[in-house]
Each structure stands twice: as C-alpha cells, then as structure tokens.
C-alpha cells in the first residue's frame, strides 16, 4: 500500500473543473456577479501550479542550496506584496518596511529552527522538504501578519481619542497603545490557535491529508502535522510580534506625537 | 512661564507674540474652530508648530523630552476618554501611566469630593454621565499635581451651578498650590470672574487680551 499512489489522468483532472462551473452557474443565476474574478482565479491557479510543478521538478532533480534559498526569497517577496494588498487601509512607507522586515526575520528564524532542529534535514537545503515546509510557514505568517496589520491600523483609528488622552496625561507612546498592540497580536494569532483546536476532529489538515494520499502511514503524517503546526505557531507568533512591536511605533513621530 | 513667538500652525493658528505668566489663571475665549484647542495642544507638544518658537521656562519646548514636558504640563481635553474599569482603576491607571504617585499619598476619596463626584471608588466609570466623566477626568489630572494645567472647556458638560463650583475649586487649588492654569472656556462670565488674564482668539489670531 505504501507506494500505491493513484495518479490522476489529465481527463480526470478536467472533471474537477466542473466545480468551478457549478460556482459560475450559481453566481450567474443568482446575479451575484464576480464571474470574471472566479474565472481569473481558476486560470491563475492552474497556470501558477503548473509552472511551480515544473520548477519544483527541476529543483528537486538538481539539489542546490542556492535554488532553495532563491525560492525561499521569491516566496517571501510574493507574501510581502500579498500582505500589502490585503490591508484595507493605506500603509505608510515605514510600516511597509517593518512588515517586510518582520516577515523575513520571523519566518527565517522559524524555518531554520524547524529544518535544522526539528526535522534535521540533511542536507539542510533538501528542496523536497525545505520548500514545502517553508511555504507553509510563510503562508500562515502572511495571513497572521495581514490580520495583525489590519487590527493595528483600525485599533489606532478607533481609539485615537483614548491614545491622545494617555499622551496628555504623560504616558509614553508604548503605554498609550499597549492595549491596542496586545489586541492586534491576539487577533492575529487567534486563527492559528483556533485551527489547532479543531484539527483532527473538525478537519484533517492539508499536509497530513497529502502525506496519507502519497502513501505515508497516518502515524508519520500525524507526527509531521504536529511538528508543522508548532512551526506555524512559532512563525506566526514571531512575525506578528515583531510587526506589532515595531509597527506601533510608526504611528508616532520623533516628538512622540500621534500621526493620524 | 510660556512665551510664544511668531507661531504658526497650518491655517489654524498664527500668533505673533504672547506671554503666559507663572501662577496665573489664564482664560482663553473665542468662537469654536478659532484655534483655542490647537493653542493648548502646542503648549504640551501634542503637536509642533510649523513655524516660530514656544518657550517653557525659558527653554524651547522642542528641546524638552516630550513625555517629561507633558508630565509637567498636563492637558485635559474637552471630551476626555475614561479608562475601562472602576473609578479607582482610573486613578490607578493614571498614576501608573504617568509613572507618578508612588511617593505621593493622595486620597482618591478626597479627590472625588473636590470635584463634587458623589460616587464610590468601586463604581464602574463607564456608567457615569457625561458631566461626571468630565469631573473624573479632572480629578485624574489633579491627582498628577502638574505644574501647569491645560483645561479645554472643563465644564462644558456641566450645569451652571456645578460649573461654577468646579471652576472655583480648580482655581482655588491652583492658587493654594502655586500652579498655573490655562483654560479654554466658552463663558465670558467665568473668564471675567476667575482669570487673571483673558486672551481672545478668533480665526487663529489673538484679537485682544486683558489683565
């Protein structure tokens, strides 16, 4: 059973697109709109995955630390631009820099700790492990940081008068925004905590499902899943922590005045 | 105590020259939107002037560490925010954020009495009315015993009787403790009755002042 992988034939894959047609039919009938967006998403996903498939085939066959690091860098850059796009408000240049820095720092620490200490990859750049594991950590950190930035910006906007009151009473900016920063941090890590709560009961996580489908024993799949969840938790925690702490400072100028 | 020279802030304020004396009660009058609140905010560096200089105790306020300055020159906004929790929490948070209070022994109950707030310390501050919140916020400022009190319409949510009582109390407190009070008020009567100096600001400019 171990290597009994069912290879999906091209024609079978075409059948999977019926689900997109179902969605298109519903949005058309109900006049919900966004047909072009749905089509674009389906086409983009297909092209992106096919391209990634070929690239990964090549990289897996030609193991090289530079390839692994280059793909890591590309993933980071895409993730950062994705965050900028997901934030509903305008982000200052300074905050953009902090988001990028937090992503690089938080995910790098987590990825290297994870591959060197937890999985003990040998060689460390083994692309078939290094790239998917990094992708999961970066993807989840991207979601966490997007939530964190949105909550931070909205927290400042909604509590402008409270923050000013704190400052007028002689509070340091860090004290004035402590509650807002803490709330932004908590709201950013909450989805990760919630997904840990439901894991295994409410749903079977993607990585575990993938490994089982690829023929791995559920016990091995579970061990990997637990490890990766801890890695994700660590990565989300670090990136959001760096972003919230440094990001909150960007709302003040050098005279400790609120810039809103 | 304060000296402003050629101070400009956006299109809101344009002050050629003014001095605000130590231990004085200064009232600032003027129509709304005329720049009174901006004037107060400049004095404790909540905002910085685009042009000109502001001196506090003969030193340019831009050369003060801003938080240290705000602890000496505390401002009470017109619509103060109340911290979540009880009245006692509001006092304790105030002392904590201003890193102030450990050496002082101020009785919270006495403060409430001073501002005519007949409440228990354990009462939820969120349940107070607008006027009560304003008085609690005033008590929080007095708890810090700052050298200068900047009050922006401190009695705007109070009835006439309570307003007189509160202003009288603040003025007495300032005079007894050698403090300086700069307050924005909508009431020329209050200004006439209590202030040592009245400054009238219209459309961002000082149009008159008298002792």
Automatic annotation (TrEMBL), chain A:
Lineage, top ranks: Bacteria, Bacillati, Bacillota, Clostridia, Halanaerobiales
Keyword Zinc listed: no
Source taxon at top rank: Bacteria
Keywords: Membrane, Transmembrane, Transmembrane helix
Chief location: membrane
Residue ranges crossing the lipid bilayer per the database entry: 6-26, 38-60, 66-85, 97-117, 129-153, 224-244
Similarity field: Belongs to the UPF0014 family.
Protein's UniProt name: Putative ABC transport system permease protein
TrEMBL record, chain B:
Family annotation (InterPro entries): AAA+_ATPase (IPR003593), ABC_transporter-like_ATP-bd (IPR003439), ABC_transporter-like_CS (IPR017871), P-loop_NTPase (IPR027417)
Keyword annotations of the record: ATP-binding, Nucleotide-binding, Transport
GO molecular function: ATP binding; ATP hydrolysis activity
Every ABC transporter domain range: 2-211
Protein origin, superkingdom: Bacteria
Record has Transport as a keyword: yes
SMART domains linked to this entry: AAA (SM00382)
Protein name stated in the entry: Putative ABC transport system ATP-binding protein
Organism field: Halanaerobium kushneri
